[in-house]
Amino acid sequence: MRVYDIIKKKRDGMALSEEEIRFFVEGYTCGAIPDYQASALMMAVYYKGMTPDETAVLTDAMAKSGDTVDLSEITGPIVDKHSTGGVGDKTTLVVAPIVASCGVKIAKMSGAGLGHTGGTTDKLLSIPGVRLDFSKEEFISIVNSCGACVCSSTASLAPADKKLYALRDVTATVDSIPLIAASIMSKKIASGSKNIVLDVKAGSGAFMKRSADAKALAREMVSIGDKNGLNVTALITNMDAPLGYAIGNSLEVIEAVQTLKGIGPSDLTDICLHLSSELLYLAGKGSLDECFDMAKNALFSGLALERFIWMVSSQGGDTSVISNTSLFQKSKYFRTVKTRSSGYIQRINAEKCGIAAMLLGAGRKAKDDVIEYGAGIILDVKPGSFVKTGDRIATLYAENESLFDSAISMLSDAFDVGEECPAEIPMVIDKFSNR
Ligand code: URA
C-alpha cells in the first residue's frame, strides 16, 4: 500500500477502505508517514469529506493508537463531558462539581486551549498549586473520594489524535466534521468513558460557525458513540457571543465561582444546568425534569461550590483563592474600551474576543507559548444591551503594556451597535441523543 495512492483516492472523492485508513493512522503515529503526506490527506478529507463508515474506522484506529484507560475501579455511576471549544467556556468548572455533589462521578481528561479557544486545563492551572498530572491510581482515588477530578490527557492516550490535531491546527484543516468527530470520540473511547454529554458549540466563536454544521457534527458523534456501545447526548449550544462576561484563565475561574454561588451570568448558569441535568439523566438519576431540579438545587444550595473547593483541594490547589477570589494574582496593567455610538449591541463576535484575549497573553498563538493566567477580558455588555456613546464595554488585562494596541483593535471590531434590539438566541439550540 502506498500513501500516495490513498491521498489520490481521497483527492478524487472516493471512500477509503478500512485497511487504507488503518495503514495511514498506524504509519503516521509511528513516524513512517511524513507530515507533508498526512497534511495532504487531511486537506483532501477537508474538501471531500468521509462517509460515516470511514469516520467510524478512523475513530477506532485513532482510539487504538495508544493506551486505553480502564475506569472499572471507580464505584457508582460515572459520566464525562466534552466541549467542542469556545470562548469564555468555563462550564466544566461548574458542571463537574454540580454532578459530583448529586452523587455521580465525573472523571475528566481535558486539553489545553489552542488558537482563539480556551482550555479547561489552563483555567485550572491558574489556581496556585493545582496538579493535573496524576497517575491512574491517584486519578481513580480522587474520583472515588471527591466525585470529580480533571486531569490532563497523557501523551500515550490516542497519540494519533495528538499528532494529527497539531498538524491540522497549522494546516487550516481543524474545522472538518469527520476529523473533529473522530478526534473527539477517539479520545472519549480511549479514556474509558461510557456516558458522555457533548457540548457542540455553534456560532462565531466555534469551529462550526453554522448551526447546520454543528448539528451534522453532533449526529456524527452520537452515531460513533452508538457503534461503540456508548450513551451519548449532544447539546448544540450558542457560541455566537462569548459565554459569560470573563475571557481568560483566572478571570474565568472567578466567574465560575460566582456561578457556583448562584450569582453567575444567566447564559452560563443556563448552559451549566442543562449540561448537568443531561449528565445526571445518563447516570440514571431520574427523569430529565427531576435531574434539572437536582442540578439547580446543588447549584443554589452551595453544595456544588463546596464540592468544587474539595476538588481543588484534592488536586493540590490553594483553596483560599476560591474562598476569596480577590486573592488571585492580578495582571499588572489594564485598559478600557468604550463605545463610539449609541444603540443596542447587535453582536459580539466571539472569535474576535478570543483572539484579543490570546493577544493579551491569555492563550497560545503557538503550542509552546507561555500563558499569563491573569490576562484577559471582562466584558460589560451582552448582545441586546443598550449603550450610549462613551460607555465602557470591556476592560482588558495584560502583564505587558505593549500587548494592548493590537488586542484593543481586534476587540473593538467584535462589537456591532445598531438601532434595533436584536432577537434573543436560545442558549440550547438543539439536542441529539442515542438514549
Ligand atoms: N476538539 C478536539 O478535541 N478535536 C478537534 O478536532 C476539535 C476540537
**What order do the SSEs take from the amino end to the carboxyl end, as H and E?**
HHHHEHEHHEHHEHEEHHHHHEEHEEEHEE
The secondary-structure class comes to alpha/beta
- Major sheet strand order: 3-2-1-4-5-13
Write out the distinct hetero groups bound to the structure.
uracil
* Helix fraction by DSSP (H/I, runs of at least 4): 40-55%
CATH class of the largest domain: Alpha Beta
Q: Tell me the strand percentage band.
A: 15-25%
CATH topology-level name of the largest domain: Pyrimidine Nucleoside Phosphorylase, Chain A, domain 2
- Rg computed from alpha carbons, rounded to a whole number of angstroms: 21 Å
Beta-strand segment tally: 13
User: Helix count, per DSSP?
Assistant: 17
Task: Report how far apart the termini are.
Answer: 40 Å
Mean pLDDT: 95
CATH architect. name of the largest domain: 3-Layer(aba) Sandwich
Low-confidence stretches: none
User: Which homologous superfamily in CATH is the superfamily of the largest domain?
Assistant: Nucleoside phosphorylase/phosphoribosyltransferase catalytic domain
The number of distinct structural domains comes to: 3
Task: Please state the overall shape, judged from the principal axes of the Cα atoms.
Answer: globular
User: Main beta sheet, described?
Assistant: 6 strands, mixed
Description of the molecule:
This protein is of the alpha/beta class and 435 residues long. The chain folds into 3 domains: 47 residues, Transferase, Pyrimidine Nucleoside Phosphorylase, Chain C (Transferase, Pyrimidine Nucleoside Phosphorylase, Chain A, domain 3); 246 residues, 3-Layer(aba) Sandwich (Pyrimidine Nucleoside Phosphorylase, Chain A, domain 2), CATH 3.40.1030; 90 residues, Alpha-Beta Complex (Aldehyde Oxidoreductase, domain 3). 45% of the residues lie in helices and 16% in strands. It is built from 17 helices and 13 strands. It binds uracil (URA). The site of uracil has 9 residues, from α9.
